[in-house]
């Protein structure tokens, strides 16, 4: 295939050069192939004999469809692929669990502070927050990352801004928890001073916050460690997907989150078309070539793979294998 884009360090070489890489993320505009590339990467890693979990933190799941089996309930071994498991985090379940936890904490706190208000009002306002769903998913992802049950984790991240908010959140969380801790500690000291007994009260809220802060700190350390984590961005040779990942890469540099590189997907292969190419297709080809030029200029040295547009969807293990072969191919 002739393209204008040079691949310096290929996907395979990048992975070989980062032997302790443990967390793979895929980002990009909607529909560019994040799920397909995450699936192909997971398949390839499992093929290297590494215990791999392909996980979706996206509220709209597509792993079950990609793999042709239900992986929504639990970590599920992928049929016919040794070392590979897949799992779609159940958003509703996660949210319900977080709500319950928050309700318990708030109830305890109201009792502790002798406030006779129903906890439900507080729970309602805490969980009606639009970021609540995302933060619940984020916590779930972090929990998985910290368990370290697998050699590698491949995350199919939610499109565009969600992923960035997800990560920005770890910083915000940390600040919030610090503030909460400070006021909790002050309240506690006051209570101890006022109480006649010297016996220290148990403080589940404080314990929860301390644990939470520790988890967030660990997650941040993992997410910003270039030897352990890499975010790959997927572009098509089209204007919008390129604009989206340009913005994305800027944000990630700001957050200090390691960018593994750029994958160019759905590239049409001129050679495969023969000589009788209809005008419509020729126009698409010219358009792609122009945008490939932009990709070369913008992401020089960061392009890890060029994946062709296949004649069918990426669904099922054989197609994933074909995609993985293209994604991890050595450039000619
Ligand atoms: N190289 C390719 N050739 C042909 N079809 C592809 C290719 N890559 C992905 N597809 C198909 O394009 C569609 C979109 O891909 P995919 O679902 O992986 O994108 P996504 O970025 O995860 O989308 P969403 O933002 O909706 O999660 C799917 O039908 C997929 O099978
Ligand atoms: Mg997807």
List the topology elements.
Blueprint: H1 11-17, E1 23-27, H2 34-47, E2 52-56, H3 63-67, E3 76-77, E4 84-88, H4 91-112, H5 119-127, H6 131-147, E5 152-156, H7 161-194, H8 204-223, E6 229-235, H9 239-255, E7 259-267, H10 279-298, E8 303-308, H11 317-327
Parallel strand pairs: 1-5, 1-6, 2-4, 2-5, 6-7, 7-8
Antiparallel strand pairs: 3-4
Helix pairs in contact: 2-11, 4-5, 4-6, 6-8, 7-8, 7-9
The chain binds adenosine-5'-triphosphate (ATP) and magnesium ion.
The site of magnesium ion has 5 residues, from helix 2.
Verbal overview:
This protein is of the alpha/beta class. It has a single domain (11-94, 130-327), classed as P-loop containing nucleotide triphosphate hydrolases (Rossmann fold, 3-Layer(aba) Sandwich). The protein has 11 helices and 8 strands. The chain has an 8-stranded mixed sheet with strand order 3-4-2-5-1-6-7-8, sandwiched between helices. β6 (229-235), α9 (239-255) and β7 (259-267) form a beta-alpha-beta unit. α2 (34-47) crosses α11 (317-327), α4 (91-112) crosses α6 (131-147) and α6 packs across α8 (204-223). The longest helix has 34 residues, at 161-194. The chain is elongated, with a radius of gyration of 23 Å. The model has no long low-confidence stretch (mean pLDDT 85). Adenosine-5'-triphosphate (ATP) binds next to α2 and β7.
* Separation, N- and C-terminal Cα atoms: 9 Å
Shape estimate? elongated
- Arrangement of strands in the largest sheet: 3-4-2-5-1-6-7-8
Specify the CATH architecture. 3-Layer(aba) Sandwich
Q: What is the top-level CATH class?
A: Alpha Beta
**Total number of distinct structural domains:** 1
Question: What is the H-and-E element order?
Answer: HEHEHEEHHHEHHEHEHEH
In CATH, the homologous superfamily goes by the name: P-loop containing nucleotide triphosphate hydrolases
With helices defined by DSSP (H or I, 4 residues minimum), what is the helix count?
Answer: 11
Main beta sheet: strand number and arrangement? 8 strands, mixed
Structural class: alpha/beta
| Bound molecule kinds, no repeats | adenosine-5'-triphosphate, magnesium ion
- Percent of residues in helices: 40-55%
Instruction: Report the mean per-residue pLDDT as an integer.
Output: 85
CATH topology: Rossmann fold
Q: Rg, please? A: 23 Å
Approximate strand percentage: 5-15%
What's the count of strands? Answer: 8
Q: Which runs of at least 5 residues are low in confidence (pLDDT < 50)? A: none
